[in-house]
Amino acid sequence: MKNLVLLLVMLMAGPLSAQRATSVVLDDWELIAQNAVREGATQNLTTWQNTTVHIALAVTSITAHTGTKLAIQLSNVDNGDENWYTYTEFIGPVGTASSTSMTVIPDADATSFTVNTPIGRFDDDGIRQIFLLGSPTVVNSEICTLVSHVAGTSGSITVVDPLANTPGTGTTFWDLAETYVVELPKNNNRIRILYDNTYDSNGSIVYTYCTIYGIRP
């Protein structure tokens, strides 16, 4: 009897043990020109469960921006372009960005950086998300959480976590960035993100990024 119970437990646990949490970069950091649209990569969802997408956008010019429209689209078929349906859409970031550049290359585990004259939102109280434009390659970009700053020509900014990538000389921080987390409904075949930078016809260039997370075999 004990052997039978053990066998039943093993049979029940087997499929569950094969499941694992997975995070995939769907759309790596990429510049979207003003009045351009980026069509993100298509991801098959048929084996995914409990899925969320994590999206980041950053404004990287001093031109006032009233937002970039993001459309999360789902499909109920395995292929073809005639069965895409918009699940949800939203607009951001909104505002006028400011930038500041590193003047000293930091240590790998540093959270405080010497920069040139942090102004704009860097000068506001409270934590906020900022964008580090990757150097020497764009894929080294990342979102940071600003916690404090010191003003002046030899100022500094402090973030919560060390950088994931070692920055190069003159690496630039931008102070207008937003992130979004969206839980996806069950039973869909595919997903893609459309990044519509035509929403503000005379706005800014933006950088965009997206990962997808879920449980899968």
Task: Give short descriptive properties of this protein.
7% helix; 1 helix; 2 domains; Jelly Rolls; five-stranded antiparallel sheet; 217 residues; six-stranded antiparallel sheet
Describe the structure.
This protein has 217 residues and is mostly beta strands. It folds into two domains: 19-95 and 177-216, Sandwich (Jelly Rolls); 99-174. It has one helix and 15 strands. Strands 7-12-9-10-11-8 form a six-stranded antiparallel beta sheet, with no helix packed on it. Strands 2, 3, 5, 6 and 14 form a five-stranded antiparallel beta sheet that branches. The longest helix is centred in the N-terminal third of the chain and has 16 residues, at 2-17. The protein is globular and about 55 Å long. It starts with a helix and ends with a strand. The model is unreliable at 4-14 (pLDDT under 50).
In short:
The chain has 217 residues and is mainly beta.
The assigned structural class equals mainly beta
User: What share of residues are in beta strands?
Assistant: over 45%
Count of alpha and pi helical runs: 1
Please state the CA-atom Rg, rounded to the nearest Å: 21 Å
| CATH fold name of the largest domain | Jelly Rolls
Helix content: under 10%
The overall average pLDDT, rounded, is 89
Low-confidence stretches: 4-14
CATH superfamily of the largest domain, please? GOLD domain
Question: How far apart are the termini?
Answer: 31 Å
Widest sheet: strand ordering: 7-12-9-10-11-8
User: From the 3D coordinates, which CATH architecture of the largest domain would you assign?
Assistant: Sandwich
User: How many extended strands?
Assistant: 15
Q: Helices and strands, in N-to-C order?
A: HEEEEEEEEEEEEEEE
Major β-sheet annotation: 6 strands, antiparallel
| CATH class membership of the largest domain | Mainly Beta
Give the count of structural domains. Answer: 2
**Shape verdict:** globular
